[in-house]
Structure formats: C-alpha cells, structure tokens
Write a structure and sequence with these properties.
about 0% strand
Length: about 120
C-alpha cells in the first residue's frame, strides 16, 4: 500500500511529538530529583538557624559592651537589645545566603551530571 505524502508527514509528526514528550518528561523528572537533592544538601550543609542564634548572641554581647562604655548601666541593656536584634538580622541574611549558595551548587552539580548524584545526602 502506498501512503500519501500527507499520511507520511502526519506519521512523522506524531512520532516526533511522542519523542519530544518523552524527552520533556525525562528532563522534568530529572529537574524534580535534582531539586529535592539540592534542598536536602542545602538543609544539611547550611545552618541558618545556628547562624541567627550565634550572631544574635555575639551582637548582644557586643552591644552590651558598647552600651556600657557609652551609656552606663542603662546603656548595657539597650545595647544588648539593639546588638542582639542586629545580630539576629545579620545572621538571618547570612544564613539565607549560605543556604541558597549550597542549593545552587548542588542543583547545578546534579543537572550537569544528568542524574541525581549518589552520596551521603541520599535518604
């Protein structure tokens, strides 16, 4: 049976569409796996909460010392409150940066390999 040019073109288009859909599905699945891997990696490597606590304590101590020097007894409490608040804010900013940096590194690593890496961050 001789197929018409239209039928041949239609069959080629259907095959190409199926192939493209399969590739997009595979890339999307890889994207999701790499996203999950990168989030787990970033959650384990970066410690935003610890950064906030440590920076808050350091800020409170530094603020209390400066407040005591410049403001006497009242200055100690005010300096501790202000320094602690600024320290927590700074720690949050730094922790967020560290988390994003770790996430981006792990995601790019995974996507460039074409598969999710197997290492200590697998559950």
């Amino acid at each position: 049976m001789i197929l018409s040019k239209f039928t041949k073109s239609l069959m080629a288009a259907v095959i190409a569409a199926g192939f493209t859909t399969a590739l997009v599905g595979e890339a999307s699945a890889l994207n999701g796996r790499c996203d999950r891997y990168a989030k787990r990696y970033a959650n384990r490597e970066a410690n935003p909460g610890g950064d906030m606590v440590g920076s808050g304590i350091a800020g409170a101590l530094g603020g209390a010392a400066l407040g005591g020097i410049f403001g006497g007894r009242r200055g100690v409490a005010r300096g501790a409150i202000i320094g602690g608040g600024l320290g927590i804010f700074g720690g949050a900013v730094r922790g967020s940066y560290d988390w994003n940096d770790a996430y981006e590194w792990a995601y790019e690593r995974c996507m460039n390999r074409g598969r999710r890496p197997r290492d200590r961050y697998d559950d």
